[in-house]
Amino acid sequence: MRGMTMTKAELTKIILTPEKAMELLEHNTLNRPLNSQHVQRLARQIDEGKWRFNGDTIKIAKTNDVLDGQHRLWAVVESKKSIETVIVHGIEREAFATIDTIRKPRSGGDTLALSGATRYRNITATALKWLLRWQRGIMEDYRAPQNRIENSDVETAYANNPQIIRAVERAAKLRGLANSPIMAFFYYVLTNRNEALAERMMATLEDPGNVGVNDPFFRLRLYFTSDHHKIKSPLVTIALAFKAANAASKNQKVQVLNWRNQGSRAEDFPKLDVK
Question: How far is CA 257 from the centre of its chain?
Fold first, then answer.
């Protein structure tokens, strides 16, 4: 490749093999800082078959430097699997400063819009992310880079859980009291376990006037209303919702609803024990 003369940018659609990716990298002298976490993220997508050809290009300068696509090239090498992509040769090296400077990242909500969702797209996407974290058993480590939920995961989860929309619409009524995406996730899960219990929870959260102060869902509501302006931890919120539902399913009264996740008496993250 080195020494080739190109008078204009040339598009080439190819199957990018690990060997070809390494060849392009070996000719690269630009050597921008590499984000290893991003490389591993892309490599996981490729390895798990989630990578899709989306028209993004790998941009090669006239000098054979890789102007854009270095992380994708390394991901192909790391995964040891090929991907379909487009390579643009012959870009002026000076154009590097203009690459990826104004691109807006696609959100999970943007992905759901392409899947036909018309309302509450961002709430739905976030609720699905919590559903996937719970299903994968990564709740407490959800911030770890290897546990990132990709837009492709959200798209698949939306197709597999169409009734999540009903849960989102129901949970949206709690805005101002509780985190809508988290409550949509939990209401959806609880409905699939015990619909009557799920409806009892929502009714109590909306209007606690007809229940006693030791009702588990009353205590859950009290958690939401105490220090109302303080941001609630998502994990604590979900843990307390699980514990409240577990107690309510057994007709137990609760004087204090809490979850000790720190200190010498720290508890494991609670399991949802509702049939």
Answer: 29
103 confidence band (pLDDT: 50, 70, 90)? low
SS (H, E, C) the chain: CCCCCCCCCEEEEEEECHHHHHHHHHCCCCCCCCCHHHHHHHHHHHHCCCCCCCCCEEEEECCCCEEECHHHHHHHHHHCCCEEEEEEEEECHHHHHHCCCCCCCCCHHHHHHHCCCCCCHHHHHHHHHHHHHHHHCCCCCCCCHHHCCCHHHHHHHHHHCCCHHHHHHHHHHHCCCCCHHHHHHHHHHHHHHCHHHHHHHHHHHHCHHHCCCCCHHHHHHHHHHCCCCCCCCHHHHHHHHHHHHHHHHCCCCCCCCCCCCCCCCCCCCCCCCCC
Compute the distance between CA of residue 115 and CA of residue 157 in angstroms, rounded to an integer.
Answer: 11
Burial class (CB in 10 A: 0-12, 13-18, 19+), 55: exposed
Amino acid identity, position 232:
K
Contact 178, 187 (CB under 8 A): no
d(CA 224, CA 229): 10
Lowest mean pLDDT of 107-111, 157-161, 248-252, 271-275, name the range: 107-111
Q: Give pLDDT tens digits for 163-196.
A: 999 999 999 999 889 999 999 999 999 999 999 9
CB 260 within 8 A of CB 267: yes
Over residues 238-258, mean pLDDT: 97
| Predicted pLDDT at 2 | 46
Which pLDDT band holds residue 158 (cuts at 50, 70, 90)?
very high
pLDDT computed for residue 262 by the predictor = 82
